[in-house]
Amino acid sequence: MLVMDIHNDAAHNALHTKRQEFKYDGVEAESNLVLDQLYFNLSDEVNMYYKSLAAETVVEKACAINMEHLTELDYLVKDRHVEPLLAQSALQILGRSINLRFILCQNINNKFYRDIDFAIKRFECGDVAGVPELTTLLNILRVAHSRLAEYLALDTFDAVLHEVNESVAPGGYRGRIQAHVEHSLINDVFPNFIYNAHTRRFVAAP
Known about the structure:
Shape: elongated
Structural class: mainly alpha
Largest sheet: 2 strands, antiparallel
Number of helices: 8
Helix content: 55-70%
Strand content: 5-15%
Order of helices and strands: HHHHEEHHHHEE
Strand order of the largest sheet: 1-2
């Protein structure tokens, strides 16, 4: 928050020391741009951090270590200590008090809507074999949401999922996920595969 203090000092100097309103207007315009970038970057950073923590919980650690060896990337999450930011409810800037936690809550809430929509769209682009991947992605998002909900007043995960999945319409009995599963079974699995009762799996028809 050091940048905010710099803008506060610059605005005070322009308005009370130099008495030049146009300089204050310039500082105010720049501070608004800085705030917009702050909201965006903090929301993105916090969202990615908690999703990474959730992925580390859901995905087996052995798998992450193997991925590190294969890609030479660090898949183990480092502690970022972002919790104090989530508790910041009064940010002082140019005489205004801004509830940073409320704004972060709104932005991160919207990100969960987009993340779930992305996961479902990715599933809809493939066949029914994508169910395990979709389940893993949704589990990661659910864990990340539950951890963030300890600090932010987010919409419930089930409510977000049902809305994005379009399974909340009155009288509706299926959503996007179920519709795509049914479509894949009817148009791909049943015509092209045979169920083997001994191995309990579908095999390609001869």
